[in-house]
Design brief:
Layout (H helix, E strand, L loop, with lengths): L1 H21 L15 H10 L17 H30 L9 H26 L25 H25 L12 H4 L6 H31 L5 H14 L7 H18 L3 H23 L4 H7 L1
Helix pairs in contact: 3-4, 3-7, 4-7, 5-9, 5-10, 7-8, 7-10, 8-9, 9-10
Length: 314
């Protein structure tokens, strides 16, 4: 009996083993490994440099036409008012000669103080004009240092691209304006405002650098890109809003000789702002351009070159 049970147990074990061998083995599911071939395509999709539809993404603007018009008119009046308010102060300090009677160091300091007040008043007026719509969408009046290279809106990524393109954009606009005869416009240029102040003095250089490369970009980018451009996208395509805000940016400088170059630079500043949604991007490009021009002028002056004579000769 024990032998019979043992034989049966052996047969059952062998049968189970045979059935196991007959069953097809099921391989484990394959592990998906990201191919390196896909990475460039993913990066290109994320960056979307040549995706023109990305340059036509409107801003979520809660205010309307009334706030836009009132804001720009109020800013223009305040900007002019601050300048006029400084005239008596200047007369009291410099005497009848006014600004020209100051030393180069005093001129640069006066320009810095004036720019500080202009910037503070301008930003306060724009923000007060839209205060009743707060909290504003995150993409409006954004000055955010985080995620500088995160695709597709990394502010430093687009800023460095804009810095690289700005000399080409300005040069092409100058060449085009010369071709069509627009460069013959007379009047003062943007460089004339600082050329008479340039001396080989570090304090003068530092004051002018703070004025032109920090405060001026903060003011102008907040007004023309942060407020005017975004507002215009509510009623027109984004490229048209960039164009109109760039024309306003060029005209407000009151320098007919440089109007084509300023407008072209405004186009570049507008489009990179549309892509980054961060005002640090156009501010960086704007400041780098102004700071580079100022530094070149100081370097030329250090070589004994008469900046005024060079400008008028050209």
């Amino acid at each position: 009996m024990e032998r019979f049970q043992g034989n049966n147990s052996g047969r059952a074990a062998r049968a189970e083993q045979t059935d196991t061998e007959r069953k097809p083995s099921v391989p484990p599911p394959p592990v998906e490994v990201a191919s390196s071939k896909d990475e460039p395509e993913e990066l290109e999709t994320a960056f979307r440099l040549f995706d023109w539809s990305a340059y036509n993404e409107r801003f979520n603007v809660p205010w309307g036409a009334k706030e836009t018009v009132v804001g720009m008119v109020a800013w223009s009046a305040a900007f002019a008012g601050v300048g006029l308010a400084f005239i008596p102060v200047l007369a009291a300090i410099a005497g009848p000669k006014g600004f020209s009677g100051l030393s180069a160091a005093d001129k640069s300091l006066f320009a810095l103080v004036n720019q500080v007040i202009e910037t503070a008043v301008s930003i306060a007026i724009i923000r007060l004009g839209v205060a009743k719509f707060e909290p504003l969408p995150d993409e409006l009046f954004k000055y955010d240092l985080r995620e500088p290279f995160k695709k597709p809106r990394g502010w430093l990524m687009w800023g460095l691209l804009g810095i690289a393109l700005s000399p080409l954009v300005v040069y092409c606009s100058a060449l085009l304006s010369e071709t069509v005869g627009a460069s013959d416009a007379g009047g003062r240029g943007t460089v004339d405002a600082v050329s008479s102040i340039i001396t080989m003095d570090f304090s003068t250089y530092a004051s002018l650098m703070a004025t032109t490369a920090l405060l001026a970009p903060l003011l102008e980018e907040t007004v023309f890109r942060g407020f005017l451009l975004t507002s215009l996208t509510k009623w027109m395509p984004v490229p048209a809003a960039v164009a109109l805000s760039s024309l306003a940016f060029g005209m407000v400088h009151l320098t007919p000789r440089d109007f084509p170059q300023l407008t072209a630079l405004g186009f570049l500043l507008g489009f990179v702002y549309v892509r980054s949604r961060n005002l640090l991007t156009p501010m960086l490009i704007h400041g780098a351009w102004n700071g580079s021009v100022l530094t070149i002028l100081f370097l030329l002056a250090s070589q004994g070159i008469d900046i005024q004579e060079l400008i008028h000769a050209n």
